[in-house]
Amino acid sequence: MPADEHIAPPRYRQVAEQLAKEIAEGALPADARIASERELAERFGISRMTARAAINILVRRGLLTRRTGAPAYVAPPKIRFDLSSPKGLYRQLEHAGIKPGAHVITAEKLPCEALEQKICAALKLDEHGGEVYHIVRLRTADDEPIAVEDSYFPADLFPDLLDFHLTESIYGILKKYFGVAPAKSVQELEISLLDAEWAQIMGVPVDLPTLEIRRIAFTAQGTPFEFAHDIYRGDRIIFTARTVTSPDAESETSGWQRVLDTLQNNHP
């Protein structure tokens, strides 16, 4: 039976949409305090429970921020991250006038036999002889946690990588000291909800919408130099991507599909 197009949405959604409109139009600028549940109830003629539901919708959408027991505020504008750009998150944040930051959670050197087979396969390393650097970082933008990056790099390509300042741009380090720059990548994207472990590390609520990215990055010569699993906050980032066609697009797609299969066939 077709839905009645004239049925009005629930009252809490109407209130949420009105507040979202005021945010979009600038009537409620970034960092502005939102009226309390009592004030919203009086303004819209609704219950405080309905007002709370409206606020919760906007918090989940990333338009408002709120901590337990504190009033809600208009969130700062979302960050744009171009997935097609060879520039990493660090450089893109800098270009946007946002202060990038990173906190190192894990930095270790491991033999391939201690890792999942897909990692060594993606980096084309001998499972019984190659070594990799495993680096996990919490990424920040203007000191706000926005992502977790879990990356693996072939140790033979980047001797003593762990001796560098890993709170800076790792891609910048690779280019400056090792002459390696990202030229191409294959990425697998998946919408998910933030689990309890990473939510605690990031200091954000459990089940926050996130975008997971599994990536293999290549040099201009086609050498894989990074296998990564990144988790980005969906409430704070807008993701963009570009499509470029070329006469060799079909053959290139075939090659990249084989790389993508490496990610998909080993993904639990």
List keywords for this structure.
28% strand; alpha+beta; Arc Repressor Mutant, subunit A; 268 residues; Chorismate lyase; elongated; single chain
Describe the fold and architecture.
The protein is of the alpha+beta class. It folds into 2 domains: 64 residues, Orthogonal Bundle (Arc Repressor Mutant, subunit A); 188 residues, Chorismate lyase. 31% of the residues lie in helices and 28% in strands. It contains 8 helices and 10 strands. The strands form 3 sheets. The chain has a 6-stranded antiparallel β-sheet with strand order 4-5-6-9-8-7. Strand 1 and strand 2 form a beta hairpin. Helix 1 crosses helix 3 and helix 2 crosses helix 3. The longest helix has 18 residues. It is elongated and about 70 Å long. The two termini are 39 Å apart. The mean pLDDT is 86.
Q: What's the number of structural domains?
A: 2
Query: Per CATH, which architecture of the largest domain?
Result: 3-Layer(aba) Sandwich
CATH superfamily of the largest domain, called what?
Answer: Chorismate lyase-like
Low-confidence stretches: none
Order of strands in the sheet with most strands: 4-5-6-9-8-7
- Alpha-beta content class: alpha+beta
What is the tally of helical segments? 8
Task: Identify the CATH class of the largest domain.
Answer: Alpha Beta
Question: What is the rounded Rg?
Answer: 22 Å
Beta-strand level of the residues, as a percent range?
25-35%
- What is the helix/strand order? HHHEEEHEHEEHEHEEEH
Number of strands: 10
Largest sheet: 6 strands, antiparallel
